[in-house]
């Protein structure tokens, strides 16, 4: 239960991303700077935390062992996650992006066969290839139904091109984030804590963010002071606090695909937090009844997904004990 509560806290701070990205888009800021500045600004915060905890040297030693692996999966987990997310903010309101983003729950479940999970038997731990949790996946389809209802309402106001530009990048991001996160958990094998892992992935993804910044400088110019300040807030709230909380939650259930899926399902709460933030701070129009229906279906799907995953885990544990 504790990892799920930590996941919900992470969802609250992640919601700052959607609200502030929407604010920057409304004020004319480019998605390029919204994406790159977040990770550039994260570095000093995370460095201070890791140095104070006297954990910098072990992190650097780990990164030296497999530098290409770190760069690859950090690019996938951070670069292919956040750049498309910011790009989509130009075509959809923050709460709708937060709602559509929950398709990552389905994406994460479909990635299960790419990883191994640990079963504890009388003869010790046993590594087996993960299986797609079909019961949890059925519950995830309820979440997908809610997303479709929200997008149908939004599609009435947009062209097909704009709708695709708001959805396709999110589909890419929904697979990239859990894939990069899980791959790095495999690489670290519990040797690094959440702060170290986030810092390591941020440092390893910096070449991509610097290249994106260079592209932004030549195409849209430098960011405004307002966008820089809001990007700093995103870096602190979402990039540092939320990411560390989420990684802490996933670390606690590392090696168990069922519990991992439950923790990832808590991110469905982002849609409510993002909607509340936009209503209060950006004075957006209140969503239509159909959109509200979609929102609550997403939340219901998240609750059912966690319930089914936990029930299956209890049965799975009883079976493994008897092996």
UniProtKB/TrEMBL annotation:
Pfam families with a match to the protein in the record: EmrE (PF13536)
Keywords for the protein's UniProt record, in alphabetical order: Membrane, Transmembrane, Transmembrane helix
UniProt keyword Transferase present: no
Leader sequence residues: none
Protein name in the entry: Multidrug resistance efflux transporter family protein
InterPro entries named in the record: EmrE
Transmembrane intervals: 31-52, 72-91, 97-120, 132-152, 158-177, 198-217, 229-247, 268-284, 290-308
Taxon lineage: Bacteria, Bacillati, Bacillota, Bacilli, Bacillales
